[in-house]
Amino acid sequence: xxxxxxxxxxxxxxxxxxxxxxxxxxxxxxxxxxxxxxxxxxxxxxxxxxxxxxxxxxxxxxxxxxxxxxxxxxxxxxxxxxxxxxxxxxxxxxxxxxxxxxxxxxxxxxxx
Amino acid sequence: xxxxxxxxxxxxxxxxxxxxxxxxxxxxxxxxxxxxxxxxxxxxxxxxxxxxxxxxxxxxxxxxxxxxxxxxxxxxxxxxxxxxxxxxxxxxxxxxxxxxxxxxxxxxxxxxxxxxxxxxxxxxxxxxxxxxxxxxxxxxxxxxxxxxxxxxxxxxxxxxxxxxxxxxxxxx
Lengths: 112, 172
Description:
The complex is a heterodimer of chains A (about 110) and B (about 170).
Chain A: E1 3-8, E2 11-16, E3 20-21, H1 26-37, E4 42-47, E5 53-54, H2 56-69, E6 73-78, H3 82-90, E7 99-100, H4 106-111
Helix pairs in contact in A: 1-2
Chain B: E1 6-8, E2 17-22, H1 25-39, H2 47-66, E3 74-82, E4 85-92, H3 123-130, E5 132-138, E6 143-149
Antiparallel strand pairs in B: 1-2, 2-3, 3-4, 4-6, 5-6
């Protein structure tokens, strides 16, 4: 489970460098997120732009990460692909997360 | 032991595509990859995503529940193309469904209290919302789930199963 992290405009942006967050990697995902973002405070934005598929185990892992980072850190999501967006919408978990159409500050970063 | 997910592509009109896997998470991922490759360009988004969500949830449930507290066994899938979508039959030799009834698929409640937010329990809600004609049967030794995913096919091939001119038939 490859995740990369950088600071953009004061937020920690964690990019998921995988095509799937599913039952076979859900626990790894949770552990890696804890390593990368545990103990911080502020905003963590999960860049999901490369993730084409999330199953209910993957969704559960994302919710678990939100809980383990709270209350000091707020987990937000960005760049959901259509099938992933559908899973969030159908389970109504899109009402639980702040979801950005794209990673904030990304356009600016490319312009530099 | 043959652990790789195996596929037998359909060769004629009316034929079904059959896939077999061991009930574990890695094989589920692998067989989903093979199925999506097999369906190829005949399905467009969002239908591709719908099929993948449904099959993933069905197979994950088998891994997690049917084969809970017992060594993982085989799962057999049969996919048949029909005019109204993709008919699926999924069989396993695991524990029967409790009371021999499918879960109602009610979605877990979303609470104000963050600590009480659900971390699972969405599977049957997703399956029920995205399928039609969902039937569960318990045979003496196996569970059999049949359903149709109502999708639209890109080409206009045969009414039943894959067509003989199916350009993916030779692939598998």
